[in-house]
């Protein structure tokens, strides 16, 4: 994608939480026009950022967006998307999601949105913490699920490509398989460590320090996100079973070794 393929877009964002606010700062810097709507009132923040905030969903959908970005929580997406007054759309629109699971929003968008709406599923594999010094070399996954307007789609993807992101085109199913093995597994281990109330000690090894970092970074995310990764990624259930099985296998190996040691000493 060359930089010449980027046109300034009118981007409407549904769900203006911390992740959307993080993305918007770069979009504004690039010259895109942003409007937002959310359950909470972000009027003051949007005024500071130079974003038009809409309390009324009808007016938001009528505001002639080129792109509508869905940045809700995983658990609230179905309710949000099914309640949209889609008859207010003025023209065929590109709908993009940025959720951490991919098959679920893809299926919902194909089921609910008008057939002339384009659908792009994406997952920026970074956030406000990892991307605070720029997006260069950070991974951006996308799947062109239903695209008829290549120019708008290309211009949206260019937002991330022009910042130096590693652009990874990948099917939603493949993403969810890999994410269950990486993102969900990381969150699961972090939650286990948090449940155990693991804290730094005066004699920490480097390995243990990394475990504490995993616990702290995953604990910063909401339990809603963690449960969304489980409930709406069909590969996560198997991953959780594998964690349980692995822990039991290791436990049995240790108990067997302990029994052998006791027998040798008796």
Distance between the termini: 72 Å
Element-by-element helix/strand order = EHEHEHEHEHEEHEHHHH
Assess the beta-strand content as a share of residues. 5-15%
| Record field, number of beta strands | 8
Low-confidence stretches: 1-5
Radius of gyration: 22 Å
Shape: elongated
Record the strand order, biggest sheet: 3-2-1-4-5-6-7-8
Structure, explained:
The chain has 266 residues and is of the alpha/beta class. It folds into two domains: 168 residues, Rossmann fold, CATH 3.40.50; 92 residues, no CATH class. The protein contains ten helices and eight strands. It has an eight-stranded mixed sheet, with helices on both faces. Helix 7 crosses helix 8 and helix 7 packs across helix 10. The chain starts with 9 loop residues before the first strand and ends with a helix. The N terminus is likely disordered. One of its GO terms (molecular function) is arogenate dehydrogenase (NADP+) activity. InterPro entries: NAD(P)-bd_dom_sf (IPR036291), PDH_N (IPR046826), Prephen_DH (IPR003099), TYRAAT1/2 (IPR045011), TYRAAT2_C (IPR059064). It comes from Sesamum indicum (Oriental sesame). Keywords: Oxidoreductase.
Offer a concise description of the structure.
The chain contains ten helices and eight strands. The chain has helices at 18-29, 43-49, 57-61, 77-82, 103-112, 150-161, 172-195, 206-219, 223-231, 236-265, and strands spanning 10-14, 33-37, 52-53, 67-70, 94-97, 118-124, 139-146, 166-169. It has an eight-stranded mixed beta sheet, sandwiched between helices.
